[in-house]
Amino acid sequence: MTNDLTIPVHRDSIIVNSIYNGKKRVSDSLLIILIYLCALISIFILMGIMGYVFVRGVPQINVSFLTTVPSTIKGTFGILGNIVNTLYVVAITLVIATPLGVGSAIYLNEYAKGGKVVRIIEFTTETLSGIPSIIFGLFGYVFFGTTLGLGYSILTGALTLSIMVLPLITRTTQEALKTVPESYRSGALGIGATKWYMIRTILLPSAMPGIVTGIILAIGRIVGESAALLFTAGSGYILPKSFLGKIFESGGTLTIQLYLCMQKAKYDEAFGIAVVLLVIVLAINGLAKYLSHKFNTEAKES
Amino acid sequence: MNTNTIKISTSQLNLYYGTNHALKDVNMELYTNKITAFIGPSGCGKSTYLKTLNRMNDLIPGVKIEGEVLLDGENIYDSRVDTTLLRKKIGMVFQQPNPFPMSIYDNVAYGPRIHGIKNKSELDDIVEKSLKGAALWEEVSGRLKKSALGLSGGQQQRLCIARALAVEPEVLLMDEPTSALDPISTLKIEDLMDELKEKYTVAIVTHNMQQATRIADHTAFFLVGEVVEYAPTTELFTAPKDSRTEDYITGRFG
């Protein structure tokens, strides 16, 4: 290398290939327009449906719609019974599916490392989550309803839905466990924690955001499910006479009632229920976002 | 100096990862209140050997271990061994600082809580003592309830040392504890190690030969799973007996 200290100068005169004023590429602009169009169309469809449902549904909603049950004597048509049934189904399904799902995820991820069995189980759970829900309904009706003799009841419906959301909870929990750094595990075991103590104190708290998100998504599926419930939980709409007794009685959720309204061509009521459902689903998704965000920032907080 | 008492003695230790013979006939003694450094090129087995000393290799599937590791005369691979009690006696600090995503206080109290200490004031004492022992107390005493993840890398590593000290171990294993740290944090940890050996027996894996000469009383040179040479540090670095050791420490390979 030479050691001269020449000052670099811009010599405009010798520029042959200028970087200015290249040709605008037509295909690029065209593609951008197309992509914007696609985005616009999908947003428009979504907003359109929601808007239509709200415009037609909101006028149906009033105090009596939300606080009464259908009665020919009183001449009321309300969905309180269905709201209560929905809460029952959600709560019981989660009580059954959450421990099972989280437990099996812990087993798959922490105890049964690798191996053929695990791959088969993972494949099965993945397949299970793709099965049309009416098949779960068929199985639930035959097995829980008839064979176990539970009939049309909230419990039959909840058991059926538990099987349906189990893969979802298992998978999300597994994914959450996989994101926990290996160093946390060895760190805890290295000071003498037993495996279960480590899982309880380090893994589960760290994986909590993912687990909670999974549970909330499961709630979303439960609330939105109809095919699997029609022949399991049935379509009862009366309010529970006793808190636990209701579990063994038939109870239609909001989606079932919506289906029945459509069947009877009661479209106004159907749109009213649709609005309630949409609000619930939006609220659940919002909650999921909020919680996972909250957990994330809490973990990073200094 | 003939005041060396044996803390851990290894004889004829062989370790296999599947078909890979990772440690070959390792015989070595670690002495009480001394720092022993393990040096050698990557993949030579020095970290593997360190991990056999508190049975962290047990966690790896397909690992097979033969031979004997005696801690105060008890074989740590005996079937009667409770790894929880073993790891209480032999603590470990890892290459990457790995504080748990919880408060500084809870990080240090984690170990004592495993071993059943629940009393608040007792835990307070342990936390303070351990953080002082790891030369971190002054920096964090005002924010014990804050998340440990907000500390700097060097502070995190000293927190991990404090966490290991909190269960009052007798031996401290350190797997390249400073390789992820800046020079100033490294210096602090080296100073700390010099104090730690007053109370503990320390074994450290290091890639940095200068570090070994600065802190270690004894040094072992590993090469492809074998201990080529094990001697007092000054002797190993000034008058190596094996030509491979000489080649390595003079920088001819590795």
UniProtKB/TrEMBL annotation, chain A:
Pfam families attached to this UniProt entry: BPD_transp_1 (PF00528)
Top-level taxon of origin: Bacteria
Membrane-crossing segments per the record: 30-55, 87-108, 120-144, 150-169, 202-223, 269-288
Protein topology in the membrane: Multi-pass membrane protein
Xref: InterPro entries: MetI-like, MetI-like_sf, Phosphate_PstA
Annotated keywords: Cell membrane, Membrane, Transmembrane, Transmembrane helix, Transport
Cellular localization per UniProt: Cell membrane
Ranges of residues in domain ABC transmembrane type-1: 83-288
PANTHER family per UniProt: PHOSPHATE TRANSPORT SYSTEM PERMEASE PROTEIN PSTA-RELATED
Family classification: Belongs to the binding-protein-dependent transport system permease family. CysTW subfamily.
Record protein name field: Phosphate transport system permease protein PstA
Gene source species: Lacrimispora defluvii
Lineage of the organism: Bacteria, Bacillati, Bacillota, Clostridia, Lachnospirales
From TrEMBL, chain B:
Entry's transmembrane regions: none
UniProt xrefs under SMART domains: AAA
Coiled-coil parts of chain: none
Keywords: ATP-binding, Nucleotide-binding, Transport
Superkingdom of the organism of origin: Bacteria
GO molecular function: ATP binding
Occurrences of domain ABC transporter (ranges): 8-249
UniProt-listed Pfam families: ABC_tran
InterPro entries in the cross-refs: AAA+_ATPase, ABC_transporter-like_ATP-bd, ABC_transporter-like_CS, P-loop_NTPase, PstB-like
Record-given protein name: Phosphate ABC transporter ATP-binding protein
Gene: pstB
